[in-house]
Design goal:
Blueprint (H helix, E strand, L loop, with lengths): L1 H27 L1 E2 L9 E4 L3 E5 L17 E8 L2 E14 L2 E2 L17 E4 L16 E3 L10 E8 L8 E8 L2 E11 L8 E6 L7 E5 L4 E3 H4 L14 E2 L4 E2 L5 E7 L3 H5 L5 H4 L13 E6 L9 E7 L21 E8 L6 E8 L3 H4 L1
Antiparallel strand pairs: 1-2, 2-3, 3-4, 4-5, 5-6, 5-12, 7-9, 8-9, 9-10, 10-11, 11-21, 13-14, 13-17, 15-19, 16-17, 17-18, 18-21, 19-20
């Protein structure tokens, strides 16, 4: 009898340890603010990290504010988070497009719409800290061990009347992908389109764009362009986009350089003065947009533009710019379609090459 009791206690304790271990595993990979007053940054280890102004994702260098009106997106690798891209919001109302990073704030008339976080759809007042740690959900009843970190992002109304808000989410079984669900407040002007665009492809020197039947190379598409601004040619319709066997649309962009080349930086004064543009991760990362088969229509299309020189704060002085090593790169990279409430799009930053995807 006593032996049976010992066995029972041992099994009970082991079950308790197992549950504790499960709980530790469940939470230890999430990157979440410690309190509402902490910096507004969320993510998952060995995967996607995102933040909103004034918080950066690279705490040792990107914590001074930086551009507003943008969602910073980074990647955590071996304890370090690297900024990879910015996501901007571009709603269209009555044929007029507006850009979240240069649209003036209604509060101080400075460039960039203010953004803030919440744990639910209930809109709340602007707050410069995290405001929420984010909700941990279980999105798949067939796999209750899968967790999802969910954060609502609100923003100021645009001058064209658009007033969108968003739910950003990351699943523990797909840590390299950020889900973006787009909503509008009831007071919003009708939006024809509400694009979430990746705005900084030149940092990763994205030059190869993979479509259904060919690879579009920015060095060929923009050959001969040497201006300081954006350059743009045609967009690509749904018929040109790669589709998975389940019907999902996937468009992958990657650099044509290896990681050693990406990490290298010209040892010239103009470049050393602008070394913030040097690619810092010690791994090569591809980027992609994905639309689930159930959530797009025939209006879906891919739009890209390019740059030959790194952005320099809008200066019109050509001397303030430096050439992108290796030639022109894709800059803005986005999927466009007619707006519908609660539409979803997925942005990925991955160690996989395009070949491993397609």
């Amino acid at each position: 009898m006593r032996t049976n009791n010992y066995i029972f206690v041992f099994v009970f304790l082991m079950m308790g340890c197992y549950q504790d271990l499960k709980a530790q595993r469940s939470g230890k990979n999430w990157i979440r603010p410690k309190s509402a007053k902490s910096e507004a940054m969320w993510g998952i280890r060995n995967g996607i990290v995102f933040s909103i102004w004034p918080a950066g994702v690279e705490n040792d260098r990107d914590n001074t504010g930086g551009p507003r009106g943008l969602i910073r997106v980074g990647y955590e690798n071996k304890g370090t988070v690297y900024l990879i891209n910015f996501l901007a919001i571009e709603p269209v109302v009555g044929g007029t497009i507006e850009y979240s990073e240069i649209s003036p704030s209604l509060i101080d008339n400075q460039w960039g719409k203010l953004m803030w976080a919440g744990e639910s759809k209930t809109d709340t007042a602007y707050f410069g800290g995290a405001k929420t740690r984010g909700a941990i959900l279980h999105p798949d009843s067939r796999h209750p061990e899968v967790e999802e970190l969910s954060v609502y992002i609100f923003m100021e109304r645009f001058n064209n009347g658009a007033h969108p808000y968003f739910r950003l989410f990351i699943r523990s079984d797909n840590p390299e992908e950020l889900g973006i669900e787009v909503f509008n407040h009831s007071s919003s002007a009708p939006m024809e389109r509400c694009v979430v665009t990746a705005t900084m492809g030149n940092y990763s020197r994205l030059r190869n764009l993979h479509l259904i039947d060919k690879v579009i190379k920015s060095t060929e598409l923009y050959k001969g362009y040497e201006g300081i601004g954006f350059t743009e040619k045609e967009s690509y319709p749904l018929s040109k986009l790669w589709k998975a066997s389940n019907g999902d649309v996937l468009v992958v962009a990657e650099s044509d350089e290896d990681v050693n080349s990406l990490n290298a930086w010209p040892q010239e004064k103009n470049y050393l003065d602008r070394a913030g543009w040097r690619y810092r991760p010690n791994i090569k990362l591809s980027q992609y947009w994905r639309k689930a088969a159930s959530d797009y229509d025939s209006s879906l299309m891919l739009r890209v533009n390019g740059r030959a020189k790194y952005w320099s704060g809008g200066s019109i002085n050509k001397e303030d710019y430096i050439d992108i090593p290796g030639g022109p790169s894709f800059e803005n990279f986005e999927l466009r379609e007619r707006y519908h409430f609660a539409e979803k799009v997925y942005f990925g930053i991955t160690k996989k090459s395009a070949r491993q995807f397609l």
